[in-house]
Amino acid sequence: MQIRVKICGITCPEDALAAVASGADAIGFILWEQSARFISPVDVKKITEFLPPFVHTVGVYVNPEKAWVEKSAAIANLSLLQFHGDESPEFCSQFHLPYIKAFRVKEGLDLLQCAQQHANARALLLDAYKAGMPGGTGCVFDWKLIPAALPVPWVLSGGLHPENIVEAIQHTRPLAVDVSSGVELTPGIKDINKIAAFMQGVRACENL
């Protein structure tokens, strides 16, 4: 089965096109102003208007105002929303675009309950928990904390990079994977060689 890949934290057209050329299914843009990878909706549009069809354009938000989501999503020409804060199911599902809900996995978090609460989500994104950091931690969480049978599609994130992606997929068997810092030179600037190596690892797992 094909494993979907999202390259997140894109800030320039060159990196977006390199990610798509390598086979990425989705490109993520951080629309949270406190992030080192923040990009304005206007600059996102300059990238999305040149992307080929069938590539998802994902806007990543952290506890946003409703008006900001509506305005930025329209300007940026997004196809999918990703909420990475403490947003309620009611908040996430009020927009005209489908959404992914991210959870920072740690001991005590009931992912089955999370899945039930966000049954309308296109998928759950499972990321690593680090106090004070909503995402982009570069840390791996304990994959054993993922329930054996989550009733919704889910995406593996958190500390993935070319050297551990094969192990990660073999251990967790996700529908999709999400990478940002693991294929970067500096925050927001990607390394084309790392992207290629990461994608090579993903594709190798599809043949196992």
Could you explain the architecture of this structure?
It is built from 7 helices and 10 strands. With 208 residues, the chain is of the alpha/beta class. The protein has one domain: TIM Barrel, CATH 3.20.20.70. The mean pLDDT is 94. The chain starts with a strand and ends with a helix. The protein is globular and about 40 Å long. Helix 1 runs parallel beside helix 7 (192-206). The chain has helices at residues 13-22, 41-48, 66-76, 89-92, 111-117, 165-172, 192-206; strands at 4-7, 26-30, 56-61, 80-83, 99-105, 123-128, 154-156, 176-179, 184-186, 189-190. The chain has an 8-stranded parallel barrel, surrounded by 5 helices. It has a two-stranded antiparallel sheet with strand order 9-10.
| Main sheet record | 8 strands, parallel, barrel
For this structure, the CATH topology is TIM Barrel
Distance between the termini: 10 Å
Number of strands: 10
Regions with little confidence, pLDDT below 50 for 5+ residues: none
**Beta-strand content estimate:** 15-25%
Structural class, by secondary structure, is alpha/beta
